Amino acid sequence: MKLVKYIIFIIVLIASIVFIIKLDKLNMIENQPVTIKFPYISSFEGYEQGIQVWEAIILTLSVGVILGFVIALFQIIAQKTELISLKSKVRRLNNELDNLRNQTLDEDIILEDVVETEETL
Q1: Would 51 be classed as within a structural domain?
Q2: What's the CA gap between 19 and 74, in Å, rounded?
Q3: What's the Rg (C-alpha) of the chain?
Q4: 3 state DSSP class of 87
Q5: Which helix (H) or strand (E) holds 29?
Q6: Which residues 6+ apart lie within 8 Å of 53 measured at CB?
Q7: 77: which residues sit within 8 A by CB, 6+ positions away?
Q8: Which domain holds residue 20?
Q9: Is the separation of the CB atoms in 63 and 33 below 8 Å?
Q10: Number of domains in the chain
């Protein structure tokens, strides 16, 4: 099943690359590629005119993937710490329950069978 999943991911990746290449070829104005200007990126040397469309798509997808991984990492860490604390609580409660089961009963308890008659009522 994992092999099928990886093959589908590779097919989607190849299709995306083909789509981006065709998009780049279609987006020409007067034989010049269409550029997009991003804040802070256009101040770097070589990007004064902006970046091409395919570069913008790759950049935004990459930033999204990295951001998703970071968010997922924080969630995984939070769940692991919660799981560890719950396991320690279960272990502590099991120890307490075992201690309560192993305690001896007090032998000081006196059990008497008392039959009440009408005279004592």
Answers
A1: yes
A2: 33
A3: 36
A4: helix
A5: strand 28-29
A6: 23, 24, 27, 33, 34, 35, 36
A7: none
A8: 2-99
A9: no
A10: 1
Instruction: Decide: pTM greater than 0.70.
Output: no
Q: Is the pLDDT of residue 114 over 80?
A: no
Secondary structure (3-state) at 28: strand
CA 50/CA 33 separation, integer angstroms: 11
> Is 40 among the domain residues?
yes
- CA 100/CA 96 separation, integer angstroms: 6
What is the per-residue pLDDT across 33-74, written as a single tens digit (0 to 9) for each?
888 887 887 788 877 788 888 888 888 888 998 999 999 999
* CB contact at 8 A, 24 and 53: yes
**Residue 12 to residue 16: CA distance in whole angstroms:** 6
Q: Which residues contact 51 (CB under 8 A, 6 or more apart)?
A: 35, 36, 37, 38, 41, 59
Side chain identity, residue 39: P
